[in-house]
Specification:
The protein has helices at residues 2-19, 46-58, 69-77, 142-145, 158-166, 177-186, 214-231, 236-239; strands at 28-32, 62-66, 83-87, 98-100, 106-115, 131-135, 151-155, 172-176, 193-194, 202-211. The protein has 252 residues and is of the alpha/beta class. It is globular, with a radius of gyration of 20 Å.
């Protein structure tokens, strides 16, 4: 029965994909930025490979560029790129509306990292009065940035924050799991890493963002239908890592 339902979903999604109108303006301009493991190049990375597969499923030619974060986000906000991923709500404001896919493809969770043998903190409230490291350019959620009772200090990299932790210059630092683990590992102190995997201090849905135009809305619909078609395939989680690709985003 399950395979029958999957087949019906795939057929329906494929039919809708063919029917959805998108202006014929050549390759779709897509921009992203480097994220270890997720965006390694224009061909490699969890997020990149899923996006390319969706373009293929939707019958779209994608012109995918990998650029520094500020440049990629800036070019999208200026209307020079049609699609940006990963998209996060913190990138946009009322002056820069965007269209997004109904589906997400990841949930960005930030945690409080400390050193074993020192006090551990599981909530932002517990950090009141503490010196806490943040990483420059990192898209922290409002739960983190609006706190006025925490003494935030910015470092140029996650690795720099690990070093500040080891030297006792900060009490903790906040970052997502993959980046935090990689930073401790790169400093050869993974065995000293401490955080509570059950208690993220902020969560943000990760999605594809499009220009707020008729073409952008049509493309967002195409992307959603393409993901539905891919999800209906029995080999979806053989092709894509189930611990990374989360179509429900931060929803349980």
């Amino acid at each position: 029965m399950r395979s029958f339902v999957s087949a019906v979903l795939a057929c329906a999604a494929a039919t809708l994909l063919r029917a959805a109108p998108v202006p014929a303006t050549g390759p779709v301009s897509v921009v992203t930025f480097p994220i270890p493991g997720h965006v390694e190049s224009a061909q490699k990375g969890h997020f990149v490979e899923l996006t390319l597969a969706m373009g293929e499923a939707a019958g779209l030619a994608l012109d995918l560029k990998v650029q520094p974060p500020s440049r990629s986000i800036g070019e999208f906000l200026e209307g020079r790129r049609m699609v940006l991923f990963p998209g996060l709500d913190v990138f946009f404001d009322a002056a820069h509306p965007r269209v997004r896919t109904r589906y997400s493809f990841n949930c960005k969770k930030d945690y409080i990292y400390t050193i074993k043998g020192r006090p551990a903190y599981a909530t932002l409230a517990a950090l009141a009065g503490r010196h806490v490291g943040l990483t420059q350019g990192y898209p922290y959620g409002p739960e983190v940035t609006r706190r006025k009772d925490i003494h935030y200090e910015t470092a140029l990299s996650d690795e720099a924050n690990v070093q500040k932790l080891l030297k006792g210059r900060i009490d903790a630092f906040i970052v997502e799991t993959s980046a935090g683990t990689r930073a401790f590992q790169s400093q050869d102190v993974l065995d000293q890493m401490q955080f509570d995997d059950d208690k993220p201090v902020s969560q943000q849905d990760v999605y594809w963002a499009f220009q707020n135009t008729d073409e952008g809305r049509a493309l967002a619909n195409k992307f959603d239908l393409a993901l539905e078609a891919l999800l209906a395939r029995s080999d979806f989680y053989q092709r894509f890592d189930a611990s990374v690709i989360l179509p429900r985003g931060c929803k349980p």
